[in-house]
## 1
Amino acid sequence: MHCEMILDEYRERLPLYRKIREVVLGQLQQTLKENGMVVTGIEGRVKTEKSLSGKLELKGTKYRTIDDITDIVGVRIITFFSDEVDKIAALVEKLFDIDWDNSVDKRKMLEIDRFGYMSLHYICRIPAALYSDAEHPEMNQIRFEVQMRTALQHVWANMQHDTGYKSEVEIPIEHQRSLNRLAGILELADEQFSRIRKEINDYRRNVQSLVASGNFDEVPLDGDTFRSYCELRPFQRLAEKIATINQAELYEDSPMPYYKILLRLNMKTIGDVERMRAECSEGAYQLALIQLAGTGLDIVAYSVALQNLCIVKILKMGYGTAGLIHMFEAIYGESDYNATRAERIYQQAVRSNLITTNP
């Protein structure tokens, strides 16, 4: 009789529960977006009558009224990394009123001799300052649950559910041990993913500092360091000088496609790129004089400076037209025109005395 009364209240409140789910999901999605938090998933549900009935059969005496059941409305946020769970939790704390007495951090409840399901569960209310409905003031009193876990924790929780792994009595010890070992692997992977990401972020901050300080020989050449180097606008002066040949407008584009060319030229550090810039700038400008002479071109791409630097470097290293063709294929893709372009530039380089021999 008591359980049936609770189910009657549930049926009456069902539209309200659905509205709470909608509001909570909307507020969380907006907050995550505003704070630049990317998660692998966010989902919400209202417990079905069948599910609630089953819960009441098992634990009905625990609940005096329907308000004692705090997870009829539930939202789950799944993050990529374990350290993001606490960041998400901080946002949830700012957004909703937290019932701390009934919230639980299952990450801190694991027994010392086993791995298991880990998740952070907050029991919350919607504060009136965030959202209110004059016709349904009880929306600010009804509690709901927000679960926060990583993708791997989510995998483990689903595996527990699917295997019916709930107690040591229910499955044989050998299967129990296998599941615990698998949980340990997932937990270790979670920790390692977060550690590796932290080390990568630390590395990026360090190389950005080295690049900004001008210690270029200490900075290995990779995608991140080259991007940081390009942010210093190292080719600006040469690009502007080339643009003035025709009094052209300088068009902004990215030098990043030339990163792979620099690697092919056996450059190991940002210092190597700097030395190429110093040694080849005059040749790159002289080549541009011939390229632009009589063209009337009034727009010049910023990356033309780096392109001409690479051309001069390729020719000085004796790679000839074959080297130029490889460069154009890497930048523009395979095309019969690459050979024509390479031959024309080679002849231009000869006329500008950058090289004196035939290919």
## 2
Amino acid sequence: MYQLIPHGFYYDFMKRRHLWANLSWAAAGLSLLLFAFKGPNYSIDFTGGTEVEVTFDKPTQIEDVRKALKPAGVGDDAIQSIGDGKESRFLFRMQGQSSAKPEDVAAADAALLKAFPDVSIKPDEQVGTRLLVTWPAPADGGVSKRSVDDFTRATAGLPGVSVQGSPEDNTVYVRLPGLAEQIRGALEASLKDHGLNIQRTDSVGPKVGGSLRTAALLSLGVTMLLLLVLVSMRFDFTFAPGAILCLFHDSTIIVGIWVLTQQEFGLSMISALLTLLGYSINDTIIVYDRIRENMGKYRSTDFSKLLNDSINQTLNRTIITSGGTMLSMVPFLFYGGPVLKQFAIAMLCGIVVGTYSSVYVAAPLTLVLRENRAYLAKLFGLKAPA
């Protein structure tokens, strides 16, 4: 195996463990305060809203785009120029906004009720705006003969309105033009000679955004709980708490960095956090395995020295593995687009923090628990290991 660290290298990691431990937990505490009082910059995945990315074939200035979108109610701060500056590429991000205009909803209601007075209309804001239209079943208990075409003809005079069938009997969905369609219409009307191209459109209703946020936080909690069970089965109580607190430390620090820099906190960030939890626990277990192996070989060795020996013995592998993983993230960082770039940044930060915490969080906590194992065993009614 290639030795990045030269033979004979030895560093006393435990010498300044108190300093690094205090700095680590101070940073974790600051991250929690930032999360509680400043709060993350949630993406539309978690708040609901609309994102539209467009390009123009002809050179287009951001001032022209802002002027074109004023009739659609899009504020100047919601329009960003992206790319390398040589292309006319723009991103429109409106958090909490995805619905159709109230007047469009009223017009659709009026057209439907005029054609079918007995229908019941209920708005559905999960993705954009659509109307759930239902009507009574026939008296004989059969299925009504009304079809999607009937409702399409009833709404034919409304621009951008489409009708979709439903798996339920006597039910159709009427889709209204949301904010994304309004943006496209405004740009085509004002900049029709510039060659508009819609690259992507994302629209999430506020109800769905809230559900995604809850599910994401729940997934993080369940993952940490399952990892706690794994480490508890693999190691004794001297090791397991250090590994779990290490995971809490790592995820808290990364979230704190995201809040401090106001990076978007969305599904890509949650994906990175879940990946980092697995990466961090793997790195910690490698160090733990070497510690436990050395405990069996050198029973009379001072435990602090045994930790230093174990960390130094695995240091070459840790640096090569972490460095290789970081290098694999570099292409995503520069060529992966906005979503993968967020993931790559989180991974790069997490790899650094996770590698550091295996040495200066997990190992010192193991030393503290080892030194106090008799007291802890008595406190929890366990038999202290020899």
## 3
Amino acid sequence: MQSIAIVVLNYNTAAITDALARYLREVLVYPDKDVFVIDNGSSAPPASVTHNLPINIGFTCGMHEGYKIASAARHYDAYWFLNSDIAFDDGGGVLADLVAVLFSSDHYAQIAPQHNSPHPHMRNANAPAQIVPWLEPTATLIKASTIERVGFWELACTLGWGIDYDYGFRIKQAGLQSILTDRARIVHREHGSQANQAEYGARAQEEMVRVLRRKYGDTWYRIVSPALVTSRGSSAPPPTASALVGMLPLAVCAIFRNESPYLQEWIEFHRIMGVEKFYLYQNRSDDDWQSVLQPYVERGLVEVTDWSMPGNCQGPAYRDCFAKQRGKALWLAVIDIDEFLFSPKFATVPKALATLPDAWGAVGVNWLIFGASGREEYSPEPVIERFTLRPGDHHHVNTHIKSVVRMARQVAVRGDAHHFEVSGSTFNENGVKVTGAHSPAHTSSLLRINHYCTKSRQEYYKRIALGRVDGVGYVARSVFDERQDHAVDDRTIQRFLPALKARLKADSEAD
């Protein structure tokens, strides 16, 4: 029986790290294992920690310290490096299955279970020992002899991006193989150890490109991961860094006034949709918005800017947000609190956005407007549950778009809250160029926005009494009746309702 050192790296995820440690120590069935929980300079280390690092030294160096600590304790046959944010659904036999496959051949250097991942080849194996070009370092089991022969991960990639490409290449150069197995599966969960995921992703990507370019030259991607290039055809342009690392992070910019009853649902829904950061501009609210947003602010998920100017405050708020986020490798969705962005085809919006051409500067996402569904007054159920009736797809208002912009491009506000001046131009999901607030034709099969533009009559009258956020004119009460076409009972978005209710319930119980 091979001896295994299990190294878990924690950073500000104490609860899930403790749960993982309990599984590894009490449920995981393997007779010769030792668990090392390394805290990477957290403000509140988990109870399960075995070794504390005084400061956060980054993902890769933190794992390397864990390896050094474990290997100093005794000689192990292999080391299992685990992120803290993983879960096991297949009982306690995962490690035994991984060890059995890994040590069945001297050619196998490292192995990983299948898991949900932005890298397609990590999701499904079709054999117990499927040779792959590299393994995402989420739950990788590496032979001690591999580390002795090839070395450890590239420590210059401190944030973790790029170590998979580099290590897979070095293993191949040593005449060894990286293996994905269909005998084990894990779940990779979102955790939130980084207060600003978008910023972290941008820094990690920049570091990866810089380090690997220095090691392998400008065409590093063709050297370390040729399978990703050749699968595109020899005449195709080389893949961008974002294509190699998967999906760009997604953030949201919005301005609000007196939206406290709706903010929590709107934020939790969009977190399910893959939004990692919310840049919110507070405009003269006199409700209890602070108590709703403060927990999100403390966790680094929401950044609130006081934007108390009267009149046309929307455009200047967007201009301020663009200036602060300009140049970052992220998508920024510019929407309102009564708009819910999602994909009918994909589980998250970033997965849908990843299918779009790199050349596009922005995508214009069409509305589908919803009326009151016969409701006259407010009730506390989720908005996406209360309102299901809407006009048909081709109602004239549904040609409106809202923009999701690549912030790495040059982007500017030119007096339109729907459409912006962006290098690479704006296209709808079908590749038709959009030059203003309306798309040439409605389309919402890849991405859509449910726009709950009235809610109940009571809520609508209360909202329009505040005036327009763009400071132009006023909204008439008669508009309410114009939006009450009940041609379609549309519950597409409600596939996310169970997850949304679970999040809202968990937050209320925590209070």
